[in-house]
Design a protein that fits this description.
The chain is an all-alpha fold. It has 8 helices and 2 strands, in the order ααααββαααα. The protein has a two-stranded antiparallel ribbon. β1 and β2 form a beta hairpin. The protein is elongated, with a radius of gyration of 23 Å. The protein starts with 6 loop residues before the first helix and ends with a helix.
């Protein structure tokens, strides 16, 4: 019995599976620790099979050394793309961390092994809310669409210009920090004014203990006003998903 095997299709699909799997293990929301690793690997292989017709068309069979080098390159490309998406969505986590610091919750920080986040209540709340909104709003589909488009920009047997991803990572980190301040900015301003008010009260009535009053007052203000930030998260996550799509399509040109 003779079974014909298309080695070009098989190699191209395998290289595509390596890139997609490396991406899914790093990029949110797929990197969430509650998702089993085998499910991520199966999803990566499934996406590779879907795009196999695109990646196999211009592909030529490589020798052993070339194939191993291509495997390493695909791991690097997938990890870089996943890192870009991870940094983009870290703005929400950073905003929660800022609220924890200014609201007095930082003393109760703990490590969450599933989300791989070391933070207090609002850090973990914002992170899990952003992940849930990505699935509820179909934002994950935009991320997967950007991943699929990366195969057209950089074929599985192509090379990646590392200067472009490095530039994008620097720009994305700066934008992430700016976005975190913008998300938590109104609440941080209120907490700062609360500190100023407590300082003035201490000057007027030195007998009052500003430190003893400050913690409950700031915690109360944080709970009262954090709802406005949570209500804005759906719009913020939608904008971040579009930004991630732009990074995936622009970071591989």
């Amino acid at each position: 019995m003779f079974i014909p095997i298309d080695y070009a299709w098989l190699e191209a699909t395998g290289l595509a599976a390596v890139r997609t799997t490396a991406f899914l293990f790093i990029a949110p929301p797929f990197s969430y620790g509650a998702f089993p690793a085998r499910i991520k690997a199966m999803l990566g292989v499934g996406i590779a099979v879907v795009v196999s017709g695109t990646v196999a068309a211009p592909y030529e069979v490589l020798d052993t050394a070339g194939f191993l080098a291509a495997l390493v390159i695909q791991v690097v490309i997938g990890a870089l793309l996943g890192l870009l998406v991870l940094v983009c969505f870290s703005a929400v986590q950073s905003a929660g961390s800022l609220i924890d610091v200014f609201g007095g919750f930082q003393l109760a920080q703990a490590f969450d092994p599933q989300m791989q986040v070391n933070g207090a209540q609002f850090t973990r709340l914002f992170q899990i809310t952003a992940l849930a909104l990505l699935f509820a709003s179909n934002g994950y589909q935009l991320i997967l669409a950007g991943l699929v488009r990366s195969f057209a920009a950089v074929p599985v047997n192509g090379m990646l210009d590392l200067s472009r991803p490095a530039e994008l990572i620097i720009d994305t980190v700066s934008q992430m920090m700016l976005s975190a301040v913008q998300i938590a900015g109104p609440l941080l301003l209120v907490l700062f004014l609360a500190d100023v008010g407590l300082g003035l009260i201490t000057r007027v009535a030195p007998a009052l203990n500003a430190f003893a009053m400050g913690f409950p007052v700031k915690i109360l203000l944080t709970f009262l006003l954090a709802g406005s930030v949570v209500l804005a998260l759906p719009t913020i996550v939608g904008a971040l998903a579009e930004d991630a799509l732009g990074l995936l399509t622009g970071g591989t040109r």
